[in-house]
Amino acid sequence: MHAISTPVARATSRASAASCSTRRDRAARLAPRASRADATARADGDDDDAHATKRAESSSSSSSTPMRRRRLINLTAATTAMVVASPALAAASEFADAGAMAILNRQGAIAMSDDEWRAKLDPFAYQVLRREATERPFSSPLYNEKRAGTFVCAGCGSELFDMSTKYDSGTGWPSFYAPISADAVTEVPDYSIMFLPRTEVRCAKCQGHLGHVFNDGPRETTGLRYCMNGVSLAFEPAA
Ligand SMILES: [Zn+2]
Question: Looking at the whole model, is its pTM more than 0.70?
Fold first, then answer.
């Protein structure tokens, strides 16, 4: 367990933690050196490979944590915006390929119908995992979980995060600086808030919504903050 926090973030987190997005917005104001270029890149719908490379270079001398290459599903802003507006409309698009459409329709290797998911999950877990709802900050028991172990997907049981990468972000949502492996999660551009492009994080296997990833994580690690809904996760303590 890495208990990493910053006094500024902790002092102001409750007031500004109404959503993951507000914290990022505030972080952008507090840390201008890291924010504007990233915001521009995301607004353009670009992957942040350049930034990831920059981070890898700048942190390689100070950290023994191996950098995991992040994979972001590249979809055009137009396609994504259209899907946000109307999945049915997007399904009819002749421009979207089958793979992208499967991702956009939340169909992974584990592909269940909406009715099947509704029957399998608790009502609120369904709303978050399948409908992108966000839990209230500080509401998840997993926020304070500190035992060694593994966080798995509450939808399909796939391993997603290890306790060793969990840290105290002060946001009220379980936060990690890296997934358990690069292919454990899928990262998708999210334009559901038009003035604040974000990157959604999903379980790669079932495409369930987990949360978002931001660039204000611990600098001594990856610099990333995987801001997760606790209800999307289940914790399996180490034996
Ligand atoms: Zn899953």
Answer: no
